[in-house]
Specification:
nine-stranded mixed beta sheet; DNA polymerase, domain 1; 379 residues; binds S-adenosyl-L-homocysteine; binds iron/sulfur cluster
């Protein structure tokens, strides 16, 4: 039964139900799947509209399809929704969801409402292979990559809770997406890019590439491909201005040191003054927060159309660092502002529910070898 089905976007869901999840399939995949059962291309357009514009959660809601067709489709496909294992709401309006996937693994997503926008911070992996020493996710080993369906699914679930359907409404609650949750998105670029294309599609969720930002710790070889394939805004987790300090804070620096990273930023497609690269810089007491560091930071990124985001360190249980004093952050910010970068300090959000930058971590255990083999043989 499983063997005759085409490749699923989410093997785990197909494993559990025998049905392929439509969420996360690219438009081309969807057209192909339907062509495989003799349906013309326009049906894919109709189904896409129901899925991503209307937010339908069941094939039976798709009333522009005749009932017998819906019944036929339901023998092969399903419209997946992620299971919300926990929802937490901060006093500042931030919401954090813990999603549980069919294989038992979990990942977190955060919604951050602001006056002029609503930002959804999405995860790309369960855990992370990298071990940045100030990041909670970095203490958890990589369990696995998320599928495109699971990445899109985080957005769908948030839009459900926020009652944000149909997608193209005025004052929509979610206006921006940041890939700044758990994981390193450039180590899962195939699935991330596929998900981004679904999220950007104009006849669906329609959040434009200008409102999507992908944050990387600096996976240099994938940066250009990311720009070329998705065109989204790039954020770099810089955090240190010398290789010596960055090697400690962001160990991938040993593989791709600062000079290579900054060259890749200079080459990032489509960067100009209207579309700048964001440099994220976590403020760690007595480690990287001196006025000399601030001046070095400004010198380092000279010539790159850039924004600077100073992130006060968000502590987590057992974290080895302290956040810089307010005075140190102010002095650092002043030097950065004098150099022409506006409002550089990022206000922590949702820290009472451990939803702020770098605080996400799930209890997922590394996928057992046996489970992984089952999933792979079903794919
Ligand atoms: N893996 C990607 C994206 C996720 S992290 C990356 O590293 O860029 C999103 C941002 O939060 C990164 O800039 C990360 O360095 C920062 N961050 C991680 N832990 C933090 C903490 N404890 N306090 C403040 N920022 C943190
Ligand atoms: Fe992974 Fe980013 Fe955390 Fe580093 S900062 S451990 S790359 S999630």
């Amino acid at each position: 039964m499983i063997a005759v089905l085409p490749q699923a976007s989410n093997p785990d869901i197909r494993l559990a139900t025998g049905l392929e999840d439509l969420i996360g399939l690219s438009r081309t995949d969807l057209i192909e799947r339907l062509a495989g059962i003799g349906l013309p291309k326009f049906r894919a357009g109709q189904i896409w509209h129901w899925l991503y514009h209307r937010g339908a959660t069941d094939l039976d809601e798709m009333t522009t399809l005749a009932k017998p067709l819906r019944t036929e489709l339901a023998t092969r496909f399903r419209v997946g929704r992620l299971e919300i294992a926990r929802e937490q709401r901060s006093v500042d309006g931030t919401i954090k969801w813990l999603f549980r996937f069919p294989d038992g693994n979990e990942a977190e997503t955060v919604f951050i409402p602001e006056d002029d926008r609503g930002t959804l911070c999405v995860s790309s992996q369960i855990g992370c292979t990298l071990t940045c020493s100030f990041c909670h996710t970095g203490t958890q080993r990589l369990v696995r990559n998320l599928t495109s369906g699971e990445i899109v699914g985080q957005v769908m679930a948030a839009l459900d809770v926020l009652e944000a359907w149909p997608a193209a409404q005025v004052n929509r609650p979610v206006t921006n997406i940041v890939l700044m949750g758990m994981g390193e998105p450039l180590y899962n670029l195939d699935n991330v890019a596929k998900a981004i294309h679904v999220i950007m599609d104009n006849e669906g969720i329609a959040i434009s590439k200008r409102r999507i930002t992908l944050s990387t710790s600096g996976v240099v070889p994938e940066m250009i491909r990311c720009g070329a394939e998705t065109g989204v805004n790039l954020a770099i987790s810089l955090h240190g201005v010398t290789d010596a300090i960055r090697d400690i804070l962001v160990p991938i620096n040993k593989k791709y040191p600062l000079a290579q990273l900054l060259q890749a930023c200079r080459n990032y497609p489509g960067t100009n003054n209207a579309r700048r690269i964001t440099f994220e810089y976590v403020m760690l007491k007595d480690l990287n927060d001196s006025p000399a560091d601030a001046r070095a930071l400004v010198r380092l990124i000279k010539g790159i159309p850039a924004k600077i985001n100073l992130i006060p360190f968000n502590p987590w249980p057992g974290s080895p660092y302290e956040c810089s004093d307010t005075a140190a952050i102010d002095a650092f910010a002043e030097i950065v502002m004098q150099a022409g970068y506006a409002s550089p300090v990022r206000r922590p959000r949702g820290s009472d529910i451990l939803a702020a930058c770098g605080q996400l971590k799930s209890d997922s255990q590394r996928l057992r070898k046996r489970n992984r083999e089952v999933a792979v043989s079903a794919a």
